[in-house]
Amino acid sequence: MPIDHSSYEIDVMISAKSIAAKVESLAKEITAFYAGTDKLVVVGLLRGSFVFIADLVRELNMPAEVDFLEVSSYGDSMKSSREVRIMKDLRGEIEGRDVLVVEDIIDTGHTMAHVMTLLQSRGPKRLEIATLLDKPSRREVEIKARWVGFEIPDEFVVGYGIDYAQRNRNLPYIGKVRQLE
Ligand code: IMP
Ligand code: MG
């Protein structure tokens, strides 16, 4: 069933200002963690992480390569499917490299678990995760990100790269979807 974009409203959950402050502090921690690494590979999971990764890499005070991986997970619905396929693979090699996977949101954890298995099989030196949002109460498989921007409750969120049926990615803040009666 197609989604009726007039049947919901979006309430601000995390302001653009709070996000910016968080990105800055995460980048400081990440830069400190990777002190001595000559060139980090920052892997953004498309499409949801594109805004976060753009802001994050500009706050990193170290050489960083940027690459992207796209896996399919959700269809145009609020339900998570467990099916994960590679839609677009990395361009670069990660063997022996320090790799930081950047995600918009970890929900059940299935997507990230698959991505970790895939990337681990390529023999990176270290493989870490930075996620802007985390919904720990929804977890079905064990996945823990080293860096988490905000832990949020079980709400469907949009904005700052995150979509609802391909809309609302361009909102500068994180908003909560509220269905209208
Ligand atoms: P998981 O496999 O259930 O952890 O889902 C991860 C992916 O589902 C994320 O990368 C998002 O693309 C999507 N997702 C999970 N929660 C939300 C949400 O609240 N809004 C929009 N997309 C979401
Ligand atoms: Mg995603």
What does this structure look like?
The chain is α/β, with parallel strands linked by helices and 181 residues long. It has one domain (16-153): Rossmann fold. It is 22% helix and 32% strand. It is built from three helices and nine strands. It has helices at 16-33, 50-59, 110-120, and strands at residues 8-14, 40-46, 64-72, 85-88, 98-106, 126-134, 147-151, 157-158, 174-179. The strands form two sheets. It has a six-stranded mixed sheet, with helices on both faces. Strand 5 (98-106), helix 3 and strand 6 (126-134) form a beta-alpha-beta unit. The protein is globular. 31% of the residues are buried. The mean pLDDT is 94. Residues 45, 48, 104 line the site of magnesium ion.
Q: Tell me the Rg in angstroms.
A: 16 Å
Structural class: alpha/beta
Given as residue ranges, the uncertain stretches (5+ residues, pLDDT < 50) are none
End-to-end gap: 18 Å
Question: Would you tell me the overall average pLDDT?
Answer: 94
**CATH architectural category:** 3-Layer(aba) Sandwich
CATH class: Alpha Beta
Largest sheet geometry: 6 strands, mixed
Sequence of secondary-structure elements: EHEHEEEHEEEE
Number of helices: 3
Annotation, overall tally of beta strands: 9
Oligomeric state:
single chain
Identify the strand order in the major beta sheet. 4-3-2-5-6-7
Per DSSP, what share of the residues sits in E-state strands of 2 or more residues?
25-35%
- The fold-level CATH name is Rossmann fold
Helix content: 10-25%
- Enumerate the distinct ligands: inosinic acid, magnesium ion
Number of separate domains:
1
- Can you tell me the overall shape? globular
